[in-house]
Design a protein that fits this description.
Elements: E1 12-23, E2 26-38, E3 44-45, H1 48-60
Antiparallel strand pairs: 1-2, 2-3
Bound molecules: zinc ion.
Zinc ion (ZN) is lined by residues 3, 5, 8, 10, 38, 40-41, 43.
Length: 74
């Protein structure tokens, strides 16, 4: 599928990405999330099914597979 960013000649490719969700002060990281990624501008599309699935996982509040370090840049 052609990239939806104006002027970008790229095409979306199916990839597994690391997706970050921010909720107030919480940051949740999901890996191996199926997404369409433009190979030129790196624009990312998630299907509504994928978004709903992530939403369900967040609401279910299951135990994460791993806890990752979070750094402040400054
Ligand atoms: Zn693009």
């Amino acid at each position: 599928m052609k990239c939806s960013i104006q002027g970008c000649p790229g095409e979306y490719e199916e990839k597994l990405i690391v997706h970050t969700v921010k909720r107030r002060n919480d940051i949740m990281v999901f890996k191996n999330v199926p997404a369409e990624v433009c190979h030129v501008c790196s624009d990312i599309l998630l299907t509504s099914e994928t978004v709903q699935h992530l939403e369900k996982m967040i609401l279910a509040g299951g135990k994460p597979e791993k806890v990752v370090p979070l750094y402040e840049y400054a």
